[in-house]
Design a protein that fits this description.
The chain is of the alpha+beta class and 187 residues long. 35% of the residues lie in helices and 39% in strands. The strands form two sheets. Strands 1, 2, 3, 4, 5 and 8 form a six-stranded antiparallel β-sheet that branches. Strands 6-7 form a two-stranded antiparallel ribbon. The C terminus is likely disordered.
């Protein structure tokens, strides 16, 4: 082997090791970007007791077309389905948890957006033939199903501001609610 070739082989080995090491490195974990800040868009306070605050949250979700699941007085789950395109679906699930606080209740909200896409899946059927065994044959009809393709927590502060503003408006302190209460009292 020539002197140049002997030097070239270790250099190639080092380059290959570095390139392989770069491919093997995994992306940073999502928890590393979690900041745990004191201020949060996921929380608001109410002067009502926890059960009353969650009742307002339930009414707010119902007024926007959410299907309510469960009957826990201090925990409300609502779900609403959307179809942005014929072959796509989105589910928005909102959970409210109401806990005691020094002013009445603290309301925590969490929204989870799940995306679905229409996927085709071919199927097959098995046929058992005496003396030969079983044979798997493709089935002519393809089946389509909505398949979950992604899921994420909604972190947009404006989304939670709008939700909490609606809950506050239903508290009876807004002008619209006060007018409704006075018209009922006049009956």
């Amino acid at each position: 082997m020539s002197c140049t070739r002997r030097r070239f082989v270790p250099v190639l080995a080092i380059i290959a090791a570095l390139a392989g090491g770069g491919c093997a490195s995994k992306p940073p974990s999502v928890y590393q970007s979690e900041s745990f800040q004191r201020e949060s868009p996921f929380v608001t306070w109410s002067t009502r007791e926890p059960a009353g605050a969650c009742e307002l949250g339930k009414r707010a979700l119902l007024s926007q077309g959410y299907q309510i699941d469960g009957s826990d007085a201090v925990r409300v789950k609502g779900q609403k389905m959307f179809q942005p395109k014929p072959d796509q679906g989105v589910s928005l699930d909102i959970t409210l948890v109401c806990l005691p606080s020094n002013v009445g209740a603290v309301v925590y909200a969490n929204a989870l957006q799940t995306r679905f896409a229409l996927k085709a899946a071919s199927s097959s059927t098995g046929v058992s033939v005496a003396g030969i065994g079983s044979i798997s044959l493709p089935w002519a009809a393809d089946k389509e199903a909505m398949v979950k393709v992604g899921e994420e927590t909604v972190t947009d502060p404006d989304f939670y501001r709008r939700l909490f503003a609606l809950i506050d408006a239903l508290d009876g302190t807004s002008v619209g609610s006060a007018d409704l209460g006075s018209s009922e009292a006049a009956r």
